[in-house]
Amino acid sequence: MRTKVIFIFFLTCLFLSSTMVFSQEGYDDVIVYGKKVTIHYTLTVEGQMIDSSQGKGPLEYVQGEGQLIKGLENSLLGLRVNDEKNIVVHPNDAYGMASAEKVIKLPRNVFFQGVDIRPGLQVQVIARGGRPNIGAVENADSRFVTVNFNHPLAGKTLTFKVKIMSVE
Question: Of the residues 21, 28, 59, 60, which has the fewest C-beta atoms closer than 10 A?
Fold first, then answer.
């Protein structure tokens, strides 16, 4: 009797699995890995608008390719065309925490002569290995220039308001 029940169960499973049709119908507009996605967004930090796609055109990216900060990209997964969502991204899933190690005091003579070095000026320094690093001057005197190489949004909680425009 037990063998007969197991055999019937096996046949039922075989029948069901052979008749199943896997279709993405109805899911073409869902954000999944590998899909090209177009969104409109507004980014605010501490209530102040920092950036927006409005007036510039929507942002395009491919889900899962790391083109967006991790916290934003992960929060978009599973959304559909026309969905709107407010997404809060904490520093560890965005640009990380600000680090004192990334604030460096450089001799003034490493900068071009005649350049007006002042706080707020963005400078590019070529690091070992040839990789460019962009930083902001925090302080400058006749001998030294202090440059902060932290991302400007490091240590900040970011709030995105997004609308999904297309998924291909």
Answer: 21
Per DSSP, the residues of 12-42 read: HHHHHHHH-----TT-TTB--TT-EEEEEEE
For 42-72, the pLDDT digits (tens) are 999 999 999 999 999 999 999 999 999 999 9
Distance CA 84, CA 80 (A): 9
85 and 32 fall within a common domain: yes
Same domain, 44 and 66: yes
Q: Is residue 3 assigned to a domain?
A: no
At residue 131, what is the residue type?
R
Q: Which residues pair with 162 in a beta bridge?
A: 41, 85
Indicate if the alpha-carbon torsion angle 130, 121, 48, 96 is positive or negative.
positive
Q: What residue numbers bound the domain in which 75 lies?
A: 27-92+155-167
User: What letter represents residue 115's amino acid?
Assistant: V
Instruction: Give which of 161, 160, 162, 111 is closest to 140, Cα–Cα.
Output: 111
Q: Are 140 and 146 in contact (CB under 8 A)?
A: yes
